[in-house]
Design the sequence.
């Protein structure tokens, strides 16, 4: 069974995490609290991580199974959280391979970047990343942030671009809590497009809240299949508020040579349409990331 390939973090790591939490009187490390990771992996083991985001976990599972297929020992540390939680583990080497998104990753390390296109963003990452990390080949698949509205709201207000929102009063923007502090969040909307919004942290229910009318603008990832199934409209971004965010393996510099020949072909095979199709298998067909990844690798002769 494919599930048998899954490995869990070693018990000593979990015990060390628990001991640390006790000693600190509840002042916890978000990575340790969410995943149990507390120490460096065993020699020869590649630790693959993922965000707490179903699409990211699918790509992480593809990476993990591809590496296992090449004969490497893999540990999975999935659903760690968002960038603030998992980046320290990557920089320290506790996690060594992670599916990332070029634009958001660049803005994490260089909030003032002026790069916007896929090529420029990818090139800028080379200078922005710490020496302990590197990116392998980027894919053409993109899952970038967008501002999205319902079809009815777009038609009623004549909306095709984010700039058109400047003429609409009483806007409420929904998205994950961290959006409020992102360069492309409410302040970015005001600075770049002159659009004022109230912000509501909607988290995992963002699309549902948009469809229900609780919010009238939503931060939705561009590969979310519900954009099509719910008849949503992604607003154009002529000023480049959102950077191109192509899927790319972020890896520890120390294992880059070991994993590049395995993961670069994965990136070459992963397309924009293919990523949406993978997401549909998760959200609509309710398939596990393990099964989705195994089938995708087989279909692309990478298994």
Sequence:
């Amino acid at each position: 069974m494919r599930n048998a390939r899954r490995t869990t973090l070693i018990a000593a790591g979990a015990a060390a995490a628990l001991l640390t939490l006790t000693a600190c009187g509840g002042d916890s490390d978000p990575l340790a609290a969410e995943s149990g990771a507390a120490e460096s992996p065993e020699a020869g083991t590649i630790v693959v991580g993922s965000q707490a985001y179903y699409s990211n976990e699918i790509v992480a599972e593809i990476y993990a199974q591809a590496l296992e297929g090449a004969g490497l020992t893999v540990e999975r540390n999935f659903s760690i959280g968002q960038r603030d939680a998992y980046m320290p583990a990557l920089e320290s080497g506790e996690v060594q391979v992670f599916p990332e998104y070029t634009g958001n990753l660049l803005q994490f390390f260089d909030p003032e970047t002026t790069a916007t296109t896929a090529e420029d963003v990818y090139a800028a990452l080379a200078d922005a990343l710490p020496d302990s990390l590197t990116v392998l080949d980027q894919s053409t698949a993109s899952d970038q942030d967008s501002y999205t509205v319902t079809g009815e709201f777009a038609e009623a207000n004549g909306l095709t671009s984010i700039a058109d929102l400047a003429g609409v009063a009483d806007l409420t923007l929904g998205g994950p809590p961290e959006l409020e502090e992102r360069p492309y969040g409410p302040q970015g909307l005001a600075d770049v497009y002159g659009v004022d919004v109230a912000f509501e942290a909607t988290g995992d229910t963002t699309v549902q809240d948009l469809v229900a009318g609780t919010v009238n603008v939503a931060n939705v990832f561009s590969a979310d299949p519900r954009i099509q199934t719910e008849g949503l409209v992604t607003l154009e971004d002529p000023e480049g508020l959102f950077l191109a965010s192509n899927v790319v393996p972020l890896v520890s510099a120390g294992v880059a040579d070991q994993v590049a020949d395995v993961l670069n072909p994965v990136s070459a095979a992963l397309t924009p349409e293919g990523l949406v199709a993978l997401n549909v298998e998760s959200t609509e067909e309710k398939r596990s990331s393990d099964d989705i990844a195994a089938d995708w690798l087989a279909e692309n002769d990478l298994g």
